[in-house]
């Protein structure tokens, strides 16, 4: 469901219970109006469901902003692979997103960003890199080789 997309389980539960509490409070308020009781003391209780519904909404907006930041940082890093600040920013944004519930599109974006981060910067050309293992010098074989036949005796 799009309403709960990007929310963790407790955030979705908090939002649903906040909506339920709001509906119950509206029902109680209507009961007070019918019975001609003052509703002023009841109004303070409406702050709780508003907070319960609002907190996951704020988290969802933060999550959406993080996804946009990853997309922008990814574009910057693909344009300039040597930018160390963009690499660090992209790494921190990915770590912020990974703990969330991810859609298939967001998972793809995170995997693409990780792949870009794993690529070495292009300023290190193969000519400037030193080999990790020095090549061995092998002397050519001299003489003749004779085939060895396996013995038939046990």
What would you note in describing this structure?
Helix 3 packs antiparallel against helix 4 (84-98) and helix 3 (47-79) packs parallel to helix 5. The protein is elongated. It contains five helices and no strands. 60% of the residues lie in helices and 0% in strands.
Radius of gyration: 32 Å
State the total count of DSSP E strands.
0
- What is the count of structural domains? 1
Overall, the morphology is elongated
Residues in helices, as a percent range: 55-70%
Distance between the termini: 74 Å
Number of helices: 5
> What share of residues are in beta strands?
under 5%
Give, in order, the helices and strands.
Answer: HHHHH
Report the major sheet: none
Low-confidence stretches: none
Structural class: mainly alpha
Average pLDDT confidence is 77
TL;DR?
With 154 residues, this protein is mainly alpha-helical. It is 60% helix and 0% strand. The chain has one domain.
Name some characteristics of this structure.
mainly alpha, elongated, 154 residues
């Amino acid at each position: 469901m799009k309403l709960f997309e990007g929310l963790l389980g407790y955030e979705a539960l908090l939002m649903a219970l906040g909506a339920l509490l709001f509906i119950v409070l509206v029902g109680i308020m209507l009961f007070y109006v019918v019975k001609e009781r003052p509703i002023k003391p009841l109004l303070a209780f409406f702050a709780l469901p508003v907070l319960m519904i609002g907190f996951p909404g704020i988290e969802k907006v933060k999550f959406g902003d993080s996804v946009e930041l990853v997309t922008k940082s990814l574009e910057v890093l693909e344009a300039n692979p040597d930018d160390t600040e963009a690499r660090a920013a992209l790494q921190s944004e990915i770590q912020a997103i990974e703990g969330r519930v991810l859609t298939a599109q967001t998972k793809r974006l995170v995997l693409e960003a990780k792949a870009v981060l794993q690529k070495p910067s292009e300023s290190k050309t193969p000519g400037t890199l030193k080999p990790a293992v020095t090549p061995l010098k092998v002397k050519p074989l001299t003489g003749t080789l004779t085939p060895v036949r396996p013995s038939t005796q046990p």
